[in-house]
């Protein structure tokens, strides 16, 4: 942060808990264009932004005529969006809002749970029956028997959580531990820097040595990729560190393929080389860091020769990387999601976050660490007003982890048991680990499940009631980003289709049905958004509700050039970068998970379930015909040695299994993974696959070292031919 700013206690968790957190023109060619495409003075332009759990947060423009969308395109004026939406979203109106399978009335279950059999009912009936059942369960089991399961299906401040947070706080429901993504990473980086915001994405063009570490930028951070390319054109070397040979790794100047879960060892070893070979910026270390001497002692055991067999790299490779990194100033490390799903995920981020301070990379524009950015808008907006932070709810209510939701739903000792489940902005039947345990819980006859959705997802199939949710084209929202520094107002372009209602309206109406009359339930979405600007924070200078309405987006008013830690000013207690934790205990460590010998014998391959699809976002769009076709059947990446020892041929269907479940995949033999490692994509809906199982049928629900992240990569499997 810049000098003079105070540390804001704003976390990635708050971001999710409380609400945020070439000119692609859609030919709305089919029905809509036939019926409505015309350019007349009745055309209206409405601005909005993508709602997905994606760092890019693209701005868009919607042309509307007679209440129908006639054109949908990326913003050409927003420099970061640069006129391009990704292939997941470029046909969003047709593939989501106007999709013929969209739910447009409330539905009540008529068949067994999971059958997907429902009958339409009125909102009046639905709300009345839901309110009565919720009240009955509260009377019998207490308010904490109610659990909200809402995550990042939309990251808009309003529809993500502004009203639902009020509702569940007023009710006294259990809290959901929203830590499946981000928390382990933020814990690690935050332990060193005091925050997660460092270099801005636009400034990566100034870097001359660029490491993309655990991130497939071409797929999952698409608008950063042209900036990376620009840096390369200006002379930067691009290094990708990833156990998976992703599209981005294939494009790099150097792909360093590690064994999954060993990044913390690699980072500690790099530190050891930098310190041993005096490849450091002594003045920066002396003036702006703490614990340098202790760190030097600590990393003595991590010489490249010692870690090399575990990391899967030669000692020479590690030394060369350390030397090049030290000499490549400005050097930039971009970290994102990959490593946080390792058992030692927080430790990996912590060790990596130390590197730029050791070399003094923070001194330079474009040098340092590029991680999250959500703290920027998080501290600028009137967050307390948005979430009524600290004024509502009992801080002592219990927390149920979303990662171990399967365990909690099946726990006979849990007191009180979970009896009512509200699912919104989420599809845990696909996205939560240990899928079969989750489904077993959702199948419970005594569990009352309410789902707000656009489609009958794998989770919605288990609902007692489904309520039709609006899409981003039909509701207000305020979008901030965890991957760049723009803010967007999303104005409804069209009225809600059918009987769809926004998430916030659902919770307002249910509050009313329960007889709650508090003023905060009367505020409209627009009221809440306006109140978010009730602040004089300098980052919002010149940015108002009114100005956003005229253009849709604005770049936060950050000091330029943005070199936040050039002279220290880290938002830690000491104001310095913490190279050794003040408690002397929470050091980055590599602690391999111990598995029983029989387990490793039965399931000898380490499995990575990764976001390698380029047409789905988590489980969103995995029901869109065009995108399913483009993505193809889910595959298993397997090394030639492991395929040969199992007599598996390329393109063959294989069974992948462990103690938690099994699924069928198409074998793809090659060097995308190292021997002993297999990889498969996440996001496919189980209900649309032949074996009715997807990647999370196999994943473990164990936690990471710190931050209660999901150690998904600590999953071990066996693979065999079918037939
Ligand atoms: S998913 Fe990401 S890249 Fe695609 S349109 Fe949305 S914000 Fe942009």
How would you portray this structure in words?
By secondary structure, the chain is α/β, with parallel strands linked by helices. Among the domains are: about 200 residues, Rossmann fold (3-Layer(aba) Sandwich), CATH 3.40.50; about 170 residues, 3-Layer(aba) Sandwich (Dimethylsulfoxide Reductase, domain 2); about 120 residues, Beta Barrel (Barwin-like endoglucanases), CATH 2.40.40.20. The protein has 26 helices and 27 strands. The strands form seven sheets. It has a six-stranded mixed beta sheet with strand order 5-4-17-16-15-6, covered by helices on one side. A six-stranded mixed β-barrel has the order 22-26-23-25-24-27. A five-stranded parallel beta sheet has the order 10-9-8-12-13. The termini are far apart. The N terminus is likely disordered. The structure holds iron/sulfur cluster. The site of iron/sulfur cluster has 12 residues, from loops.
Task: List its traits.
Rossmann fold; 27 strands; disordered N terminus; globular; Dimethylsulfoxide Reductase, domain 2
In short:
This protein is 30% helix and 17% strand.
Specify the CATH architecture of the domain at 107-176 and 387-478 and 485-524: 3-Layer(aba) Sandwich
Query: What is the CATH C-level name of the domain at 107-176 and 387-478 and 485-524?
Result: Alpha Beta
Mean of residue pLDDT values: 93
Spatial order of the strands in the main sheet?
5-4-17-16-15-6
Radius of gyration: 25 Å
Derived from helix and strand composition plus strand pairing, the structural class reads alpha/beta
Bound molecules: iron/sulfur cluster
Instruction: Write the CATH fold name of the domain at 107-176 and 387-478 and 485-524.
Output: Rossmann fold
Count of helical regions: 26
Largest sheet: 6 strands, mixed
- Quick one: overall form? globular
What percent of residues are in strands? 15-25%
